[in-house]
Amino acid sequence: MIDNYTHKGLRKKLVETLKLKGIEDTAVLNAINKIPRHAFMDSGFVNHAYVDKAFPIAADQTISQPYTVARQTELLEVKKGDRILEIGTGSGYQTAVLLEMGAIVYSIERQNELFKKTKLFLPKLGYRPKKLIFGDGYRGYEAEAPYDGILVTAGAPYVPKPLLAQLALGGRLVIPVGTDTQIMTVYTREEANKFEKEEFGAYRFVPLLEDKE
Ligand code: SAH
Predict the structure, then answer these.
(1) Rounded Cα–Cα distance for residues 211 and 213 (Å)
(2) Is 107 one of the annotated active-site residues of the chain?
(3) CB 108 near ligand 1, within 6 Å
(4) How far apart are the first and last CA of the chain?
(5) Whose CA is nearest to atom 14 of ligand 1?
(6) For residue 129, is the peptide bond before it cis, meaning its omega torsion is within 30 degrees of 0?
(7) CATH says 57-203 is which class?
(8) Per-residue pLDDT of the chain (213 residues; tens, 9 = 90+)
(9) In 3D, which of 55, 65, 68 has the Cα closest to residue 22?
(10) Does the beta carbon of 110 sit less than 6 angstroms from any atom of ligand 1?
(11) 72: which of 20, 27, 45, 208 is 20 to 30 A away, CA to CA?
(12) If you measure from the C-alpha of residue 5 to the centroid of ligand 1, how many angstroms do you get, rounded to a whole number?
């Protein structure tokens, strides 16, 4: 993987763009400044890696727009050592952002092709999630619950109950909710059975797919 001065310069500009768009969390901005996003994309798209846009990856999926990654991560309020569950591993770019911020990361992907590809790829860049899981994110990952944060990177038609149930006290679930467009929604677990809900504007994600039996 080549990461040259051109790439580094383009990343600096991208970080400036994200600041102008309102991203304030310096740990998020530092992570984006450091991670070679072009390495997460097919070679044909390298020139597009540092514009603030989503792009196609394998299996008809997308690598989320940098602003969206930054905003979701900021809303998650990640602290070093936090245990985070990501739903929708995809390219692994968001996973890398969380790892760069010192989080312990579990991530679930339902597309086997992507799961296998990203599992091989992340360690090559030195990124080691605690566990990558091939499975259905609607169920969360009970075996390692509770989590300080859960981040859903696909559009959920509704809020899956297991995700709320797997939050630690004080933990945050960041989830885009809706079908055609999604409202970025944050649930904070204030007490065992009490969740605060906040909304942060409209986005457009690929759908969180449900495997119906
Ligand atoms: N975080 C990714 C974003 C990928 S797009 C990145 O930074 O590149 C959303 C991902 O969610 C896709 O890879 C898609 O396959 C996955 N996905 C969709 N429905 C899912 C489900 N029910 N469980 C787990 N992953 C799912």
Answers:
(1) 6
(2) no
(3) yes
(4) 41
(5) 88
(6) no
(7) alpha beta
(8) 889 999 999 999 999 999 999 999 999 999 999 999 999 988 777 778 999 999 988 888 889 999 999 999 999 999 999 999 999 999 999 999 999 999 999 999 999 999 999 999 999 999 999 999 999 999 999 999 999 999 999 999 999 999 999 999 999 999 999 999 999 999 999 999 999 999 999 999 999 999 765
(9) 68
(10) yes
(11) 45
(12) 31
Task: Return the structure tokens found at 27.
Answer: 């740990």
**Burial per residue of 4-23, b for 16 or more beta-carbon CB atoms within 10 angstroms, e otherwise:** eeebeebbeebbeebeeeeb
- Which residues, in sequence order, are CB contacts of 167 under 8 Å at separation 6+? 146, 147, 150, 173, 187, 189
Q: How far is CA 170 from the centre of its chain?
A: 20
Distance CA 203, CA 68 (A): 8
Please tell me the distance between residue 185's alpha carbon and the centre of ligand 1 in angstroms.
17
- H-helix or E-strand containing 132? strand 131-134
- Listed by start position, the domains of the chain span 57-203
Among 89, 94, 52, 51, which residue's Cα sits nearest to residue 73? 94
* Placement of tokens 């495997």 in the chain: 211
Amino acid at 32: I
